[in-house]
Design a protein that fits this description.
Length: 138
């Protein structure tokens, strides 16, 4: 199958960012015999290159060049789990498996928002609190 063909991973524009406790870089992937490469597979390739934990490696923003065979994206490697949880957006933490996705229906969120809009004055904060309680109870 085409899944076992070799993939070449190159990094460029490497920056050490001590304020955000991470290393960041642009990743170029050359995959001539494959349509694309899974992020999980790339994590396992890039993490050892920088002596890092694959769980703290975040890959995103990949664009495949026209004609295929070459993809460019962005990589962040955090120094610690705490730094990743502090600076990384919630949706990327969920994608990486560091946070669980909160299941809440779209309809329920809209209903609570509209109930809050109907209440005026000081009762608004009380209604918002009750709505939050009702949402947590479900």
């Amino acid at each position: 199958m085409a899944g076992d063909s070799a993939v070449v991973v190159k990094t460029r524009k490497f920056i050490r960012n001590p304020l955000l406790a991470r290393r960041q870089m642009v990743v170029d992937i050359i995959h001539p015999d494959r349509p694309n490469v899974p992020k999980k597979e790339l994590q396992d390739v890039i993490a050892p290159m920088y002596k890092a934990d694959p769980k703290l490696t975040f890959l995103f923003g990949f664009k495949t060049k026209f004609g295929g065979g070459r993809t460019t994206g962005f990589c962040l490697i955090y120094d610690s789990k705490d730094a990743a949880e502090k600076f990384e957006p919630k949706h990327r933490l969920i994608r990486n498996g560091m946070k669980a996705k909160k299941d809440s229906s779209r309809k329920l969120i809209k209903e609570t928002k509209n109930k809050g809009l109907k209440v005026r004055g000081t009762g608004r904060s009380i209604a918002k609190h009750k709505a939050k309680r009702a949402e947590q109870a479900d």
